[in-house]
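Apologies for my clumsy wording, but are you able to produce some protein sequence, whichever is easiest, and the tokens describing how it folds?
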Amino acid sequence: GSVFLHCEWGHAGYMTRIDGFQDLVVWQRARELTKRVYFITRLAQQESLLLNELRALPITMASKIAAAYETRGTYYAIEMLGLAKAASNGFKLQLTAFYMRGLVRQPEYEDLLERAVEIRQLLFELEYAFGFWYGQNDDEWET
């Protein structure tokens, strides 16, 4: 199998096809990060812009990954993966600010940071794969 695709082996030993973005490991990791962030911040004493952004960025990652998959083979897909990477970087910055203010414990900070780094690496690998799917004759790629 691939590091970015969740593939199951059929009874004849062949991999089954990918049925949707939900089969992408990177999308699954973004969803897991979303759930983990909400779990860790569930007892936050008050809502804040920082907390809201920390919660929103993994959702942005997952939605951009889904949009990229649905439009694979186009320049738009590459743009969506770029936005997902930007959201991953933004998440790491917001998480660090959250940690520096003492709003999350070190083990939780390290866990979330490690997950974000993994997602970013998977995004680079998916972007590389999508580059092969991108149409060679599309003039929009040159702009």
User: Anything to note?
Assistant: Residues 6-15 have pLDDT under 50 and may be disordered.
